[in-house]
Amino acid sequence: MSKEQGFFLAGEWRTSDSRLEVRHPYDGSLVGATFWASEKDLEEATQKAVKAFEVTRKLTSHQRFLALRKLLGLLQQQEDRFTRLIVQEAGKPWKQAKAEVNRAFLTIEIAAEESRRIGGELLPMDVAPNSAGLTGIVGRFPIGPIAGISPFNFPLNLALHKICPAIASGNPILVKPSPRTPLTLLALAELIAQLDLPAGAVSIMPFSNELAAKMVADDRFKMLTFTGSAPVGWDLKARAGKKRVLLELGGNAAVIVDRDTDLDAAIPRIVVGGYGFAGQSCISVQRVYVHQDIYDEFSHRLVHGVQALKVGDPMSENTDVGPVIDEAAAKRTEAWCREAVSEGAQVLTGGRIIRGNLFEPTVLDKVRPTSKVCNEEVFAPVVVLAPFTDFRKAVAAVNDSRYGLQAGVYTNNLEHVLYAFQELQVGGIMINEIPSFRIDHMPYGGTKDSGLGREGLRYAIEEMTEPRLLVIRRQT
Predict the structure, then answer these.
(1) Active-site residue 337, yes or no?
(2) What is the CATH class of 254-439?
(3) In the annotation, is 374 catalytic?
(4) Which is the catalytic residue, given 100, 114, 248, 463?
(5) What is the CATH code for 7-249+450-470?
């Protein structure tokens, strides 16, 4: 990609008088630039998406499959380019950016497979005396143009979780990338431009939040799929009118560590879950509830593991923790840690800005449940610890949150597994695994303020299609 890149409007590259610069979160250097789309651009893209739907809805499953398989091949040829872009735009350490690109391969591959499995069912109709001789068929049909808004933290893969099911299900999509990380998605647009899809099938355009609200309220879009913060997501839902809404929002993911846990297995995973990409994931480990009998050993070993993390330049393949996205995020995190300490918390390690946007990996103990670092989404490399003696009370503590995305439970007690499955108010429960675990075919989403609906390719395709019933009466 050149230093300056237009936005992608229905198969065409456009510019405007309003330039959008993208800077590296680690050192502030200029990564590249693109342009803000205008209200006129949004209207044109919307009209072309509506027009494209008359073509995309009639594409065969084989045509959709071929388009996605071609996209996969093109992306695989540019693995290093996309890895580098993610590092530069998002500040994600190289090995974690590379993992995101590899996850993107799987996302596209699964979407291609699912494009050939969009089926229906044969519905028995002879359940009443007057329905003998009837046959029912339920099919699934694309719903129309889709409005997508994607976040900065997984600029490639989370956008593909919107684009790929849209292509697979025969729906046009207009995606607004995060203004922090638009270049990765515009590089993807270069690949999408090479697919055998109609103009208007995909548009990728940065534009203002005011225009985003206008897009969301537009009845020509039949669905909103949004990934981002809870306050913004629920505000957009209120503006969305009658259209379908799929929200993947925030969390303050918790882990319960039972007394029978193998700490050699659990602690390294919790370190990965709490500090990967500087904790900037909706399912990053934030709260850890540890049985009192192993609490001292656990906290000592966790702190040792955290202090061994390499913090620094995300371009280095040895770096574990890079910068948070901007200075405001770093300062907010430091302020929240100070607030917790003023309320009685103890800093076991970290708790401060190192320099720039680098925040020291942090472990806090004796944190009040009402402290922001515990009951809000910290979105930073901060983990809080708390002991428990009663497993049921630990589950209740996890549930004492307005979020409910995913949770992890380390235990070998089957009764505790079943109790957690029955009682935890989250969208996904990981047993002997961290809540940060996600494979891209999973039904992924949350309860309470964490969202509405489910992503994961088959589940997103179901959201983007509607069932239609055909009843046939035999004449003989």
Answers:
(1) no
(2) alpha beta
(3) no
(4) 248
(5) 3.40.605.10
